[in-house]
Amino acid sequence: MRKNLPNILTVSRIVMVMIFVVLATLANRAYLSEEWIFPLRLGAYILAILAGTTDLLDGHLARRWNQITDFGALMDPLADKIFVTATMLIAVEYRLMPAWIAVAVLCREFMVTGLRTLAAKKQVVISADRWGKLKTALQMVMLAIAGASWVWEFDLHSAKWFGVRLWYVWIAYLCGIVLVTVLSGLGYFIRYRDLFLHTGDDKSEK
Questions:
Q1: Residue 39 binned pLDDT confidence (cut-offs 50, 70, 90)
Q2: CB 84 within 8 A of CB 109
Q3: Which of 3, 44, 112, 142 could serve as 23's disulfide partner, Cβ 3.0–4.6 Å?
Q4: Which stretches of the chain are assigned E, i.e. beta strand?
Q5: In a 3-state reduction of DSSP, which class is residue 14?
C-alpha cells in the first residue's frame, strides 16, 4: 500500500474531480428540487477540498519515500490540470468568476505543461519555483472562497463590505491571481528558453 500510495492519491484525485463535476452539475435548480441543492453542493465542495489536498500529498510522499515513478511523473501534472480546469469551469458556469479569468489561468497551465513535456524529452527537470508555489496557494484560496460562496449561496455580486461591493474586491483578487499566474509562467519560459530556442545540429520531428 505504502509503495503505491502516491500514485493511488494521484488517481483518486482524478476520480474525485469527475464525481465533483457530476455533483456540481446536478446541484442546479433547473434539474433538482430545492432540498437536494445544499447536500449536493456541500458534497461537491468537500470532494474538491479533498482533491486539492491529494495534490499536496502525492508529490510530497513520492519524494519523501523515494517513490517517483514514470506513471506518477505523467499522471500527477495531468491530474493537476484536470482539477484546475474542472473547478474553474464550474466556477464560471455558476458566475463565480468571469470566463476570461479562467481562460488566462488555464492557458498558462497548459503552456507550462507543454514546456515541462519538452524539458522531460531533453532530460531536464523543471521544478516549481516560489512564484509557482505562490500561484498554486492563491488559486487554492480562490477556489475555497468561490466554493464556500456557492455552497452557502453568499452573493458576491451584491454583498457589500464597508460600503464597497464585494464583487469589486473579488475581481481585484482574481486579477492579482492572473498577474501572479502569468508572471510565474513567463519566468519558466525565460529561465528555460534554451529548450525551445536552441539551434543545434540535432533535428527533431515536428
A1: very high
A2: yes
A3: 44
A4: 160-161, 164-165
A5: helix
Tell me the average pLDDT across 47-64: 82
**pLDDT value of residue 85:** 92
Rounded CA gap, 127 and 119, in Å? Answer: 11
Task: Give the separation between CA 144 and CA 48, rounded to whole angstroms.
Answer: 9
Q: Could you please report the per-residue DSSP string of 147-196?
A: HHHHHTT--TTT-EETTEEHHHHHHHHHHHHHHHHHHHHHHHHHHTTHHH
Tens digit of each residue's pLDDT (9 = 90 or more) over 68-106: 777 777 778 788 889 999 999 999 999 999 999 999 999
Residue type, 92: V
CA distance from start to end of the chain: 41
Q: What is the pTM of this model?
A: 0.83
Q: Are strands 160-161 and 164-165 parallel, antiparallel or unpaired?
A: antiparallel
What span, in angstroms and rounded, lies between the C-alpha atoms of 32 and 141?
Answer: 29
